Amino acid sequence: MKFKILFLILILLFLNFETVAAAENKYGSVRAWFNGENATVNGVQLKIGEPIELKLDVLSKVNGHVSLKLKEPGVTNAYDVLSGPSKIDEKISNLNIESGWSKTYAWSLAPNGAWKNGNAPINIIVQFHDLKTKNDEIIQFTIANPYILDEQYSGAVTTTTAAPKITETGAPPANETPFLSMMFAFAALLLAWWRMH
């Protein structure tokens, strides 16, 4: 019995290390990539004019409508769309689709210089509408959070060094909790050990 519990906890621990680049609800799922890397991508620095590739897979689990758009949360539009099915903040609608419908979207963007020396997240919002229940479900997340440098792109590859962290107060930012899944696994092991004794 102890071995089975330990084995189950170890499996859960390893599954926690798998980063799934997907968001899902009862109406559909969305997967995204930034320059071929699973979303959400952090720690990327981009130069002005440096092209990036976004890819999005959308799957509907219901008969209905699927709408989506790329979104920048800031007031300043930091990117220009070089190619793709829509501009930023422009809605794409897929009406009267059937359950099991899926589609892949791809965009090429580049920082335009309107925003620099700071982070410029790229978000996706996907809305699923079920014709049967007349209800909506929304999936939204950040595909990438690049730091835009005040430098012009000259053909070099994208770097993945950590962007500087800046807070509004000027105080050092609070550090993220490292290995949250490890703490959960440790707590589960401790609970299992405590129940056995």
Summarize the structure.
The protein is α+β, with helices and mostly antiparallel strands and 197 residues long. The protein has two helices and 13 strands.
Account of the protein in words:
About 20% of the residues are buried. The radius of gyration is 21 Å and the shape is flat. A hairpin with a 2-residue loop joins strand 2 and strand 3 (about 35-40). The protein has one domain (about 20-160): Immunoglobulins (Immunoglobulin-like, Sandwich). Helix 1 packs antiparallel against helix 2. With about 200 residues, the protein is of the alpha+beta class. The chain has helices at about 1-15, 180-195, and strands at about 20-25, 30-35, 35-40, 45-50, 50-60, 65-70, 80-85, 90-95, 100-110, 120, 120-130, 135-145, 145-150. Helices cover about 15% and strands about 40% of the residues. The protein has two helices and 13 strands. The strands form three sheets. Strands 1, 2, 3, 5, 7 and 9 form a six-stranded antiparallel β-sheet that branches. The two termini are about 15 Å apart.
Radius of gyration, Cα only, in angstroms?
21 Å
Under CATH, the homologous superfamily reads Immunoglobulins
Ends apart, CA distance between termini:
13 Å
Tally the helices. Answer: 2
- Low-confidence runs (pLDDT<50, min 5 residues)? 12-21, 158-180
Tally of structural domains: 1
* Pattern of helices and strands: HEEEEEEEEEEEEEH
Number of β-strand runs: 13
Percent strand: 35-45%
**What would you call the shape?**
flat
